[in-house]
Amino acid sequence: MRLIEWRLGMDNETHSYTIQLKSQKNYLKSYKKMFKERIHNVSTLLLLFVISVLGISAKSAIPPQRPIIQTKYTADPTPMVYKDTVFLYTSHDEDDAMGFKMQDWLLYSSTDMVNWTEHGVVASLKNFDWVPYDNGAWAVQCIERNGKFYLYCPMPNGIGIGVLVSDSPYGPFKDPIGKPLIKNSNHDIDPTVFIDDDGQAYMYWGNPKLYWVKLNEDMISYSGDIQQDPTTPSNYQEGPWVWKRNGLYYLAYASTCCPEGIGYAISSSPTGSWEYKGMIVDASEKTRGNHPGIIEFKGKSYCFGHSYDLLKQITSKFYERRSVDMDEIVYSSDGSIQNRQYWSIEGPSQVGRLKPFQRIEAETMAWSEGLKTHFETEWEGDFDWARGNKIADRLYVTSINNGDYLMLKGVDFANGTKSVDVCISSINGGKIEIRIDKIDGPIISTIDVDFSGEAGIWRTITSPVEEIKGVHDLYFIFKGEKDLFNFDWWSFSEI
């Protein structure tokens, strides 16, 4: 999403126009409406002149990376760095949520902090046989130890914090103990786990009180008593996140209420006492609730949190349909974190290049418009009672209509390519325009999807590509009537 604000004054009167751009189509609609309503205003004429001079158009006004996931509502970001990849686990607000409607946890990954790949549902409340609820999949955290991955999951209605274990960050995750790991109070939410340099692991959690306990090396049991922090830092609300840097222990948390920003405190010990230092991200009506996640990756530091930017593209009403956002953070020489008012418009810089000469899942994107993702298992048979053998599990891009698109940043074509493969399941058919650098940039390939009525039948289409070398932003732009096709993956040939 991009917020563009023009402030033009005349005769001591200031006119402010804020246009929220969901797409080039919405931009035109907003523009036409403003033109009809304000054409008599001299300031509007000046606005039109400025737009003309600057060359702002529907096709060039592409939203920057705000927020980082657009195909689903996501919340409670918990990033984990493992090897050369950032794994981002999130809770998930359903599209029709009026309040909190959360049934599962999702996983995304990135190697460059700009292009994110969805991996679908990584776990849900159904993973816990002792949980009788199907709503209330609150904030989780995943952490690796000794080659295993531990997902700590708070349960609804105060029934405790569970833990799941997997041999892979992608899952599958299983419940190793069949009961709550923590059952302390009705405040058992928002667990976070930190492993100190000496190997001791700690779990922290709680709203509005902060609790902690020492975990055993097996990460599925604990030793000693559960402790309530006696010096809960100023404005602590919920969502603790602990990390260590240059010998100092940091505690970030959702701060103030409501709305919530992201505050932080510092200690010389993992168990406190905590000294409040200020706000990483100020409280804003743009965020309402919040939940921090802090990592370092490829020499840079990042803070994840909440926005409601996707929701506000649809309605001015408030629902609990949150979106994960993030930005770089900067430490001062004394260890303090420089404050920011809100997530920047431009977002973080790219810290790697995307290699197109391999199978790239279509649900990998830096930005998209109008698209959703869907998971299904493909069977030999069409009926539950006659499925036959499983063909494949597929997570793919769907809800593709005319003018929708997906974009990837910093794609490195190296010495060039001659062709592109796309895996498509057609519904009504259409075409894909592949462009570079901007949404109305040069077309390097046009793919006709001329077969229709074949939903569920996946085909690979090969199309020639115009000469292209080096690094470019890449756009897949979809043309046709409506319900065009589903999109599974793509790959370019390498010269």
Summarize the structure.
By secondary structure, the protein is mainly β. 7% of the residues lie in helices and 44% in strands. The longest helix has 15 residues, at 24-38.
Could you describe the 3D structure shown?
The protein has 495 residues and is mainly β. It has 3 domains: 2-54, no CATH class; 75-329, Glycosyl hydrolase domain, family 43 (Tachylectin-2, Chain A), CATH 2.115.10; 360-492, Galactose-binding domain-like (Jelly Rolls, Sandwich), CATH 2.60.120. The protein has 3 helices and 32 strands. The chain has a 5-stranded antiparallel beta sheet with strand order 3-4-5-6-22, with no helix packed on it. A 5-stranded antiparallel beta sheet has the order 23-26-31-28-29, with no helix packed on it. Strands 10-11-12-13 form a 4-stranded antiparallel beta sheet, with no helix packed on it. A hairpin with a 6-residue loop joins strand 28 and strand 29. The longest helix has 15 residues, at 24-38. The model is unreliable at 1-62 (pLDDT under 50).
Roughly how many Å apart are the termini? 36 Å
Note the quaternary state here. single chain
Number of helices: 3
CATH class of the largest domain: Mainly Beta
Annotated CATH architecture of the largest domain: 5 Propeller
- How does the helix and strand content classify structurally? mainly beta
Helical fraction equals under 10%
Task: Quote the CATH topology of the largest domain.
Answer: Tachylectin-2, Chain A
How much β-strand is present in the residues?
Answer: 35-45%
Number of domains: 3
Report the biggest beta sheet as strand number plus sense, adding barrel if it closes.
Answer: 5 strands, antiparallel
Q: What Rg, in angstroms, do the CA atoms define?
A: 24 Å
Give the rounded overall mean pLDDT.
86
Note the overall shape: globular
Unreliable runs, pLDDT <50, ≥5 residues?
1-62
Q: Main sheet: which strands, in order across? A: 3-4-5-6-22
How many runs of DSSP E, i.e. beta strands? 32
Fourth CATH level, the homologous superfamily of the largest domain: Glycosyl hydrolase domain, family 43
